[in-house]
Amino acid sequence: MHLFIANGIPERRQRLEKHLKERGISDTFTIVWNTEWDKNHPFVRWIKICVAPHWSPELISVHVKAFENLQTAINLKQMYFMTADDDVVFPKNFVDAVNKIQLKPFNVVSMGINYHIPYGENLTFTGNVGGMECCILSSEFSQFLLDNVDFNQTLDIVISAIMPRMGMKLEITPLAHQTSVLEYRKTTHEGGKFEKNWIDYVNTYKPSGLKYSLLKEEFQKFMNKKNAVERQYKELFDTEIDIWNVDYIEKQYNLIV
After folding, report:
1. C-alpha to C-alpha distances, 124 to 121, 165, 220, 223, nearest whole angstrom
2. Using one digit for the tens of pLDDT, what is the confidence trace for 56-78?
3. pTM above 0.85, yes or no
4. What domain range includes position 103?
5. Are 131 and 178 in contact (CB under 8 A)?
6. How far is 102 from 246, CA to CA, in rounded Å?
7. What is the mean pLDDT of the chain?
8. Which residues of 40-55 are buried (b: 16+ CB within 10 A; e: fewer)?
9. Where residue 7 sits, what CATH number does that domain have?
């Protein structure tokens, strides 16, 4: 099984690589690090301007990393795989506990901080997410997420909203803990504003129908226009600038073509 880790802070990777080795995790599972798609990446900036202005660049970056991990896992034909944040810690028996989990074709297993469930290997069925620092996902469920990208809530809440609609209950085993939450450090999940609180969102959830692949296609179209306008600007003013005024780009592009 593959373990995909979204890495945003280089120092965390150094610590986590040592931790994964000590726990025998990197010797058992294939570790895939995602170090791209930071807050200054053009795709992240485009989403901030054109799709999710109510989200911080940091929060968008976290979700793009997650979406890219899902897509990579699907491309690698991984029927099941794990995803994790870069500030997690695992117990000594993590490998044995994961290998005991009976996976289903359409399934989510959450391994994270849960305030109401004691530490242990047994699965508990609950509607309370309580933290999804590490998850086992199926490719089918991941494809549904990629076909219904939603910026009205964070991904963990979106997952918890989808499952009841499909007659599923979340399976939780608190085997991975996110240190930043317990230490009261600021996390990127604080960077969003939402019309509904998470409970109302879950209770009224409807699939968005917004495909991640379509977002990537629209972004590429925008970048083609942006590059054309910037070339024209360079020719006119002999000055290179990084133009991000979307309204200007659209209008100038229409004049060029």
Report:
1. 9, 19, 43, 46
2. 999 999 999 999 999 999 999 99
3. yes
4. 2-210
5. yes
6. 49
7. 87
8. ebebbbbbbeebbeeb
9. 3.90.550
